[in-house]
Amino acid sequence: MTHRSLERGLAMLEWLAAAGRPLSLSDTARQFALHRSTTHHLLQALVRVGYLQQDGDTRSYSLTHKLYQLTGRPWPAELIGEMAQPLVEDLTRRLGEGSSVAVWRDGLVRIVAKYETDGPVRVVQDVNAQRPLHCTAVGKALAAWMPPSTLRAALAANPLTRHTPKTIVTQAALEAELRRIRNAGYAIDDEEQHEGLRCIAMPVFSHSGEVVASMCVVGPKHRMTHQRLLVVRAPLAEASARLSKRLGHSESPRA
User: Cβ contacts of residue 6 below 8 Å, gap of 6+?
Assistant: First the structure.
């Protein structure tokens, strides 16, 4: 790579990092006023050295874990959502139930990607919607693998509010539930936030080995029976492991 190419490549990395989302060849060529062939050559060089990855379906480019590993910066929530979106869409099509991905940011569990079924009975979720930490599957899957200091601060700032008769409302019971989740590798919300709904979630890890997100499948309890939850586990484990891998994690979460 020439001196000029190196400058352009670094500028592209900075631009992609600032954008916080995957970008196309056309976007990049337009941004840097370059021919598509020149832009393609530079982007592919960055893919070869491991700083960019190209999506097999959309052909867009995004940063790999390598840059975040070097800088120590956390993955942006929006970029996690962009990377997760095709995975949750595929999961919902395969299972016929809604799915989503949540992250822990600024003391809140927030949905960053979601996909719903087309049927008349479905669970509607909104991107950027907040979820309680103690009584949702996505929240508990995050809490179970949080560093102890982060979890203590989170529980101190978020009261264990009762939402249904099944909501966990004592710290001792929650700690026992989080131990069970770590042992099992997944979290269940069995009508703990909303009566009539069940959800199963698994953690998503980054290159640092820390939990950065959780992925879930959710549906009405008449469809999400306990037997159905067992069937859902393997596809969910596969999808969450794929997202972890994209975020640089070298080992699959426990299924």
Answer: none
Report DSSP state, residue 230: H
- Which one is the CATH code of 3-63: 3.40.1190.20, 1.10.10.10, 1.10.220.30, 1.25.10.10? 1.10.10.10
pTM of the full predicted structure? 0.78
Please tell me whether residue 108 adopts helix, strand or coil conformation.
strand
Write the pLDDT tens digit of every residue in 137-194: 999 999 999 999 999 999 888 889 999 999 999 999 999 999 999 999 999 999 999 9
Q: Which two tokens stand for residue 240?
A: 């969450």
Under CATH, which number does the domain 77-246 receive? 3.30.450.40
Sign of the Cα torsion 73, 77, 83, 87 reads: positive
How far, CA to CA in Å, does 3 sit from each of 7, 10, 45?
6, 11, 14
